[in-house]
Amino acid sequence: MPLLSLAIWVPVAAALLVLAAGGDRNAPLQRAIALAGAVLGFVVTIPLYAGFETGVAGMQFVELRPWIEAFNVNYHLGVDGISVLFLLLNSFITILVVIAGWSVIESRVGQYYASFLMLSGVMNGVFSALDGVLFYVFFEATLIPMFIIIGVWGGPNRVYAAVKFFLYTLFGSLLMLVAVLYLYGKSGGSFAVLDWHKLPLSLAAQKWLFFGFLFAFAVKVPMWPVHTWLPDAHVEAPTGGSVVLAAIMLKLGAYGFVRFSLPILPDASRDLAWLMIALSLVAVVYIGLVALVQTDMKRLIAYSSVSHMGFVTLGFFVFNTWGVEGALVQMISHGFVSAALFLCVGVLYDRMHSRMITDYGGVVNTMPKFAALMMLFAMANSGLPATSGFVGEFMVIMGAMQKNFWLAFAAATTLVFGAAYTLWMYKRVMFGAVANARVAALKDLEPRETLVLGLLAVAVLFMGVYPLPFTEVMHASVDELLRHVAQPKL
To answer: Which pLDDT value is given to residue 323?
Structure first.
């Protein structure tokens, strides 16, 4: 079974079926097709995990077919312990996004769902591509559906936010294309990413290539100081757009570091680790303080994402097992927690049409079930033990401790800042007297909303209490990556 091809093309085929179902008069049919496509897209990824051989460092479920033979470009797919979990995460989040928009999206329903299904398919392509051109095509293809999602269903400044998002990410990707073409020439005409891992490149060449990839991946993560497109994109995007942007799209850049920068350019990665660690700590500390002063809930969670993703890049560049595995676990945990927090804001926005913290107060009096679930996600965002948010952060801090105590100390400040901005927001929105008549009229969660948030709550608690199913698949691939990076190419 070509499982990876199915993971990519089943959602894309479902998107085309949704579009073929006609206009808004057929919205119920379009919703049903979208949900069936999303569920089937998730089902075909389950054998990837169930059949994955732990303890094997190499690529599994490999598919290789010629594509553009004149330039030796192949349709080459495969996953290892680093990438396999992201296909499941992406497909799982897609189901939740389809359910979350069920009764909220009333115009252009088919186009809305088709955009998300298309995006889900091409993001699975990014996580499984082993050919440089194929990776680049999928990486760029993710821009188009998200651009449409923000630009069509977003807020009042949606066009500005969509164009800013598109230009930032496109500019960074063009530099990556130059790096890919250089590697093609150096490897004697091969676009196979695994071949590039063996290239004997000089330190100077590695550094130039490192910065070429850095711009593409840093914008996507996003790292400080190229993060400024993210708050605008989140604030203007519809709830589903914010969920996918935070839970999956930010991971594409971080994934690029472990698939390209570290294994292809190990000498430059070690030589420039100080720069990556410095930028990561700025994101963790400075952006945490920026989040503290936000008045818009969505903008606060957007800055929180930048701060938490700083933890991910920090973990990669301390070059030990704790750090790299902790960063990967943090990526998956952030997918659950950030998705949940944006969905919580969406629940409130659907009822009040406001994201401003000052418009709320005393919500727990009228929405107790919602307040309980949001408390769990707020605690996970703060790194509370027994939630998924703690596991990755603890592992990265342990990895940083192995490298330098003060590095770990600076990284650990995120636990303080995370608790400060998340719990202060929660306190002002949820507790106290009922703020106004609109809050007094709020209705608690509908069954559809309870299902979506409940599934995420289970994921957050399960990963926090029993992270082994997530970490055991990574061990061999991470060990092989670190062994490879430790060997000088010069």
So the answer is: 87
